[in-house]
Each structure stands twice: as C-alpha cells, then as structure tokens.
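residues and backbone:
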Amino acid sequence: MTRPLALLAALCLAPALALAQATPPLEGRLKRIAETRAITVAYRTDALPFSFEDADHKPTGYTVDLCRSVIGLIEKRVNVVPLQVKWVAVTTQNRLQTVAGGGADMECGATSVTLGRMNEVGFSSLTFVDGTGLLVRAANPAKSLIDLANQKIGVIPGTSNERALAEALKSKVVTATVVPVKNRDDGLAQLEAGQIDALASDRVLLVGLAAKAKDPKAMALLADALSYEPYAIVLPRGDWQLQQAVDSALAQIYRSAALPEIYNRWFGAMGAPNPVLEVMFALGRLPE
C-alpha cells in the first residue's frame, strides 16, 4: 500500500476507532442489567400525577412515562431488547434506601434533589421543577402562610417539604403547630376531618391530591410557594455510567416530540410549561 493510500485508510478508520473508544465496556448497574436482561424500577403509588397506580394497579404518571422512554433507550445501550422491567412500589420513607441498597436501579417518582440526599444517592438531569405549597379547606379564610398562625399544618416527616415549612415559619415569624402525617393520603384525610388546618407538600402533588378529595371543590391551594423543589430520577450514587446513560436518554427525549406528548398528557390542562420549566428542559437537551 502506498503512503497516500495508507494515510487515507487511517483517516477513514479514525472515526470508527474513536467511536469504539467512546463506548466503554459495561460496568456497575448497566452490566448487571445486561447480564440479567432486566431492570428494576422503583415507583410511588401516591404521587399523582408524577407516579401512581392506574385502575389496573399498574405504574403510571409523568415521571413513569419519562422512565419508560429512558428504559427504551437504555435497551439500545446494553443491546438487550426488550428488557424485563420489574416495578417495585416504594414510600417516601424507603425510596432512597431502596436504590442505594440495590433494591432498584432507579426511582421514578417525585423526589427532590438536595445536597443532603446526594450523600446517599445520585440524581439524573432534572425532570420537573415545583415548590412546596399549602392545601387548605376552601372554607378556611387563610390566604397565605401568615394567616395560618396558631393553626395546625400537616407535613410528612423527613421530606424537603418539612424543612421548607420550618424555614418559612421561622422567616415569617409565624407560630403554628406542625403535625406529622404518614403520607399525603393520610394528610388529606386529616384535612377533610378537620384534624389539621392545612397540608404542606409539593404544589403539583397537592393539586392531584385535591382531585381525590370527597369534594374537590371544598379544597383550595394557597398562593404561597415556600420552596424550590427540583425533581430528578434517583440513581445509585457513584455509578457514573448508568447516570450518563440516563442523562443521555433524557437529553434525547427533551429534543424529541416525545416530551410535549408526555407533558401534555399529564399537565396539558395547566397550559404550556412555565418559563422555569422551559429553561429546565432547554438545559437538559445536552448535546451528544
């Protein structure tokens, strides 16, 4: 082979060699997923409209739909089509431990990213942005947190909502009785029974919860936004290959027609994404 032909052949082979180097062998959870031909996904049953069970007791919701699309792209990464998807129901209390302990490869619910939680688990690119809000009975004259002085406010212990509520009460110098509730359904039951005067949780989750009330019109969401709650898919801490695969999949989804379809399915009644969500989606469209 002459020198010019050898140089041309090398140039032609360079992209293929670079591609081979850019796709390292599978490690960590991705390797296990490929070997077992299965992926285990944790989901919430009480986080409407992000993650809950439909009439047939199957996982559904905005984040669940995102994760189904992510799994479809992971199948191509591990070269196993289709993967068997094993769904595992989790609670607010055990969702992080389930992923950290190997009981699930990811959690698809309504989990906020916090620096403290990063000590235990990893997170994907953001999937939604919400804030802590307050649900009250419509008959309650309160219009803001300040109006709930000396009243009872329910919140799930150990959540970012609990911290946001505590900080808001302190900053606004409001004295109220904070009542722990087991979960959002328990909080709604106590609110309807008059055992608490308000329930603190993520605003979009409270909208979905109010729809489940015996009389949805008897519930009202206050205008206050007590915190910034960025949601993401929970992943094993330090498993960078799985995180890269999930982030890459989300980036492809955010660039595709799948995103507006998924968004409109669950939030179409709320109108177009607000400016904060638009920026979040734009930042998630990472280039290849």
Residues 4-21 have pLDDT under 50 and may be disordered. Residues 3-22 form the longest helix (20 residues). The first strand starts at residue 38 and ends at 44. The chain has two domains: 26-130+230-284, 132-221.
